Amino acid sequence: MDNRPIGFLDSGVGGLTVVRELMRQLPHEEVIYIGDSARAPYGPRPAEQIRDYTWQLVNFLLTKDVKMIVIACNTATAVVWEEIKEKLDIPVLGVILPGASAAIKSTHSGKIGVIGTPMTVTSDIYRKKIEALSPEMEVSSLACPKFVPLVESNELTSSVTKKVVYETLLPLAGKVDTLVLGCTHYPLLRSIIQNVMGPDVKLIDSGAECVRDISVLLNYFEINRSREEQTLQHRFYTTASAKSFAEIAEHWLGQKVSVEHIDL
Q: Which is the catalytic residue, given 9, 19, 73, 193?
């Protein structure tokens, strides 16, 4: 047993979609979360800057004595997950491989769509992972640079958001039977995305899929939190407004949260 918390990092609030799934599947585990909303979105930034920012978040989590780190950000996973995984002596998970695997299992036509930030799409990492696992798949990728700013500003249901999502996704509509939400912010727009793509298109939440891997690694390394340890102190940190972060977090997680502003 290991009662230390699991560390989550993201460019902003998007990683909360992973935390919500963790709380559902592994309610006895404790969470420490850092969201870099002050510098979001990461997607349009150069790779070296994303690498530097991600390492800052990792180093912050290490000061909190976490037993595992989850890079709950597709962009950061694409750029620097391999490097971080090699350098740390605790398990480090990314969200891309679980999402790619789930998409292959879901599709009937072999036509898979991937939406993500400009950096994630430019890296072509989803297509590479999907085709490495199943070469016959046909992958269509689409960058959605306007989605993360809409989520970070808590504009989840506005008419502007609906219009932006519709216009952005139009090139993929009717062309795929499975769509990977290749950014952990995107599940916060799930209902709008589903409306645009149609009811028959299966949406793959890469972050939620990642939680299954978290569970496997906790068991493998025998670092589950003791079920007898009842008191959980989830802690959330943001580089931007704690109030704004708390509003989104409490709405999404369905509970009161403790949020602290930090400067990196």
A: 73
